[in-house]
């Protein structure tokens, strides 16, 4: 690329890449823009050749660059290089930890059949555990959470007391509502019973303090496209003592548990993105928390019957005070993800809200899956005891590195009108059937679509 062309490239214009077609992007938990420095490193690597398993000079050079990335990633998250297993993303890392951990433990002792996961895990963990239960004799236990989404430690403790637990998996921060789980206590309880613990840290790295060694975890998953690296990059960080049975078989790469030619470009892009995200984490956590609080407070002022899901806002947004001493240097279970604001808006359907926001140029999410165009009630909200109707009226704004005050102001300006329209559409859909001869004055007022337009 020529210098002039590079200056014109969106990746070169300041630090915020241009998001084509989106005015206000508040769906960073779904995926966040690739950082310009990372895109540059990735592109640079793509121009090289060499399989890290080859013996020639190009292969040895690729191996050296790969191992540098492993060291860089490990240092950023408080792990040893040998603990890093590169994967294609968070889903693969979760599958390897849950299936691989279960198979290895059960292989050593056939009585270890229980897979215990929190009821609000991402499908990458939940569906994996369900698959083991349906096809491989596992006894799946969904650990309860309270009305804020915080894990019920009493349930875990009682389960561990019964014995037979192969593996425990509890996410670090939840992707829908942003609650941070009490991992310190989870690890303490599980280890006292001799049970390994995996955590899906996909939404934690770069957002809250993450230090693998201090966490005491046996394994944790991370994903590149949630922190500024390309989609298709990720890692499982796993202690050498955490036995894993391979999920994929082949050339025996990555300690023999994750076969497949190693993606050097992806690994290097991931390692740089993790390093940068972790270096900026404390400042970003404070900045995003302020923006999130401002968003939630302003929306509550302007729209009635709106509720924030999960623990109360913490003001500064810190995930809790950082007490002295290395063992407690990682605050866990005391707060929420700084960039996730999950709201339920009574009397409005998520799909109408999302469409209205989209028409106003704002990209948000309901936080949960939409199957065949129909918004499903989130399993997270249902596990928290919300009724299904309210669970279908969820809106998740997830803020990230490129989010500005103007983005928040745009939401606050657009949302009241969007909610009004969505509520009218909801009311029209749920209006009792018209009886013959009885005038329907509501129908005479016209449908939302007929009236059209967000305020
Ligand atoms: C908590 C959590 N775990 C796992 C995943 C899956 O990660 P990936 O998209 O890299 O497979 C996601 C993605 O949404 C997530 O939010």
UniProtKB/TrEMBL annotation:
<dbReference type="InterPro" id="IPR015422">
    <property type="entry name" value="PyrdxlP-dep_Trfase_small"/>
</dbReference>
<feature type="region of interest" description="Disordered">
    <location>
        <begin position="424"/>
        <end position="455"/>
    </location>
</feature>
<dbReference type="GO" id="GO:0051536">
    <property type="term" value="F:iron-sulfur cluster binding"/>
</dbReference>
<dbReference type="GO" id="GO:0031071">
    <property type="term" value="F:cysteine desulfurase activity"/>
</dbReference>
<dbReference type="InterPro" id="IPR020578">
    <property type="entry name" value="Aminotrans_V_PyrdxlP_BS"/>
</dbReference>
<dbReference type="Pfam" id="PF00266">
    <property type="entry name" value="Aminotran_5"/>
</dbReference>
<protein>
    <recommendedName>
        <fullName>cysteine desulfurase</fullName>
        <ecNumber>2.8.1.7</ecNumber>
    </recommendedName>
</protein>
<comment type="similarity">
    <text>Belongs to the class-V pyridoxal-phosphate-dependent aminotransferase family. NifS/IscS subfamily.</text>
</comment>
<keyword id="KW-0808">Transferase</keyword>
<feature type="domain" description="Aminotransferase class V">
    <location>
        <begin position="334"/>
        <end position="411"/>
    </location>
</feature>
<feature type="coiled-coil region">
    <location>
        <begin position="274"/>
        <end position="301"/>
    </location>
</feature>
<dbReference type="InterPro" id="IPR016454">
    <property type="entry name" value="Cysteine_dSase"/>
</dbReference>
<keyword id="KW-0663">Pyridoxal phosphate</keyword>
<keyword id="KW-0408">Iron</keyword>
<dbReference type="InterPro" id="IPR015424">
    <property type="entry name" value="PyrdxlP-dep_Trfase"/>
</dbReference>
<keyword id="KW-0175">Coiled coil</keyword>
<dbReference type="InterPro" id="IPR015421">
    <property type="entry name" value="PyrdxlP-dep_Trfase_major"/>
</dbReference>
<dbReference type="InterPro" id="IPR000192">
    <property type="entry name" value="Aminotrans_V_dom"/>
</dbReference>
<dbReference type="GO" id="GO:0046872">
    <property type="term" value="F:metal ion binding"/>
</dbReference>
<keyword id="KW-0411">Iron-sulfur</keyword>
<feature type="domain" description="Aminotransferase class V">
    <location>
        <begin position="24"/>
        <end position="299"/>
    </location>
</feature>
<feature type="compositionally biased region" description="Basic residues">
    <location>
        <begin position="424"/>
        <end position="434"/>
    </location>
</feature>
<keyword id="KW-0479">Metal-binding</keyword>
